[in-house]
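Thread: Newbie trying to understand structure tokens

Hi all, I'm a second-year student working on a class project, and my supervisor (Dr. K.) asked me to get a predicted structure for one chain before our next meeting. I've only ever worked with sequences, so writing a 3D structure as a token string is new to me. If someone could post the tokens and maybe explain what I'm looking at, I'd be very grateful. Here's the chain:
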Amino acid sequence: MGFRVRISSVVASASTQAYFRWLGSGPLALFNALVILAVIGIVAELFGESMGLGMKIAIIVIVVFVSLFVFFLQQFQPALSARNEYQEALVKAVLERLVERYRHENHGDYDLRVNVMKLRRTHWGYPLYLKIDYSLAGYSELEQELEFKIDTGCCGWAFVAREQTIYDKALHQEALRGMTQSQREATDVVHCVLSTPIFRGQGKSEPIGILNLDSQNEIGETMFRDKEMKVLVAQYAAIIGSFLR
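---
Reply by user tm_fold:
Sure, no problem. This is what the structure looks like when written as tokens:
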């Protein structure tokens, strides 16, 4: 029940902010468009004597299109920003709850970080690479900028296999295959990783992202291999997949 209340409050807060942002954007966008129209009209009037009829008509057409473009750009941009802010708040609320539940189920003094990587695609829809979009606790700017090609690193392997994948630094050096030198250096302190595919809704087709848990501690402390812990993480990946876009 506590988890449902927490998520509901985040949704309500984000939705309220999005509504008021949309309410204020329409009149402002129209006002800005009219200002642009007036300014360009004045300029056209000042130089009107040296312009032919065709040139004046061309200017009017350009003014109309520019004004409409500015209007629609300002109309939709706040809505898009509000949607992104809403999704970020929701993802982070889920990640916070996941960490809380994980530590409750697996007591111990161990480091634990969590992030969500979304899949980037080419213009033709082919999978391109994975990159951190949302995270909690201690990721450097370099780590957040890393781009992992499909089938590279633990996250890439999980994407290709479409199932949870584990990296243990003490045993699985093969997971480093294909990683660049900068990727190896940036993640050198990580001793274990649990990567879980995120699917859209209930579908099990191609993943839309990866939920990663990693730690500087040994895997025996984090219990990434434990079946119950893996099931717990998979449940939260399913929750994120129900709304991630």
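A couple of things are worth pointing out once you decode it. The CA atoms of residues 40 and 200 lie 48 Å apart. The helical segments are 2-46, 53-105, 141-145, 153-161, 181-186, 219-222, 227-241. Feel free to ask follow-ups in this thread.
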